[in-house]
Amino acid sequence: MSRRLLATARRRLEAEQGAPPHPWGGRLRVALIYPNRYHQAMSNLGFQWVHQAINSRPDTLCERFFLPDEADLQEHRKSGFGLFSLESARPLTDFDLIAFSISFENDYLHLPTLFELGRIPLWSAQRGDDYPPVLCGGVCAFLNPEPLAEIMDLFAVGEGEKILPGLLDCLQPPVLPRRDLYDKLCRLPGIYVPSRYRVEYAKDGRLVAVTPLGHAPRRVRRQWLENLDDVECRSFIHTKETEFGDLSLVEISRGCGRGCRFCAAGFIYLPPRERSAVALAPQFADGLCYRPRLGLVSAAVSDHSQIVQLQQEIQQAGGQFSVASLRIDSLTAAEIAALKEAGHRTVALAPEAGSQRLRNVINKGFDVQGILRAVRLVAEGGIPNLKLYFLLGLPTETREDVDELLDLTKKIRQIWLDAGKRRGRIGHLTLSVNPFVPKPFTPLQWAAMAPQAELKKRLRSLRAAVGRLPNTEVVAESLRSAELQALLARGDRRCGRILPWLAAGDNLRAACAKAGIDTAFYLYRERQGDEIFPWEIIDSGVSRAYLWQEYRNALAEQPSTPCALACRRCGVCEQP
């Protein structure tokens, strides 16, 4: 036992608001794990929703587990004290189901540590009936589950609101032998059981066949909630010890109909849906009881059909609101004024590419005049700081495209300077430049990632040029981190074998060499048109033929088809 670790957990619980205690005993017990630290986990609405939903049932109980902070991790190893739940300090083996909520591929690195501290074998094949089943949910579970297929026993493919009730019902007593339980679960909509499939590879490493065994379906169809008004998704627990501790978060919509060809969220959450102002009003009121400012969560906040009304209702209730980024092509002066009144000192816009040619490749539906118009609105609205998101290494990118990004930056900076001089204070301009990572279920899933050497060269030239501009800076994601993300995003079952080596401190290339993985095979080659993808065990609801046509359109710098923008029962989404 470690008094220090228990004291940390007790302090966190005492600092939380909105987390009532739940009695132990006589219930199905679920251990919910976020594979990162408490600070990140408690800002994740999906994680919070699952915890709340399970504890809302009279026959189930859910307690939370997190990756320990660095000092606590050292204490775990020094004391030998295992991983324990935040609520009751019980170990993982006291639970009936272990459920991971995973939103980011780079969090896979923490799985070996969590399993080690939890005293549970990492590999599914080494866990018998003595251990609880291990489930993976979250975005990664229905983007590409295969790199974790030798670790997880089960995956929840789609949105929890549709999957969780049936899953919990299925796990209720009487307890079935593990083999019979998995046979039963693989028949549930949205449950993928990797052990019920046989995979085969060609000599060149490509996947050639995925064969279902027994009663497993040929593909597992993604589940999605048709009417968001049926379920609340907000901050149920508030704490200062988190990334957005000063906000109460509320999801106002889900999915996006813009059809940006690089964006996984824009495709795996189709069709786009929104919560009505009527349904959101009590959620806003509840959030304002805990925090004076609401964080509006959505892939496309300004695309909500009632966004002006929602903002006005928050302000009339005496609250403020925050948004992650603004749409360049739908931005209004009224929206900027509302953000300024809410206390925003920085807003973010996402041109994504500096040249019109590349914006055509990725299907961004605006031109340079539209970008400059949006920048003027922000500058003239009195917001002092601006953040711009760009992707580096997009398919077909050339040196000329990077030069145009610099030219665009100079034009934006001039607008910012002029507005700053008029108000007597020049604000700050930040370029967030991140490597393009090809993602499953997008038109660019066939594309190669740009080699690290080329990305380094282009990023270095950007930094050098921007560094000569006062009040302007470039920030960028680690190229090594982006490569790891790319490998795990489009990898197959073999790729999960690198995780223990990475957790032990090896870099990506050393870990891949020890696991027999060819990084170039997964990262730097364009996939063939007829190639079978590991993630296609999932039926995302978006036609592969449509994605392939969109990839060809991208390479030809052509716009998307009209149905991609509507994406509601139009044949693209293949929804009933």
Structural write-up:
The chain is of the alpha/beta class and about 575 residues long. It has two domains: about 220 residues, no CATH class; about 270 residues, Aldolase class I (TIM Barrel). Helix content is about 35%, strand content about 15%. It has 22 helices and 19 strands. The strands form six sheets. The protein has a six-stranded mixed sheet with strand order 2-1-3-4-5-6. Helix 15 links the parallel strand 16 and strand 17. Helix 14 packs parallel to helix 15 and helix 15 packs parallel to helix 16. The radius of gyration is 24 Å and the shape is globular. The N and C termini lie far apart (about 55 Å). The relative contact order is 0.10. About 0% of the residues have low confidence.
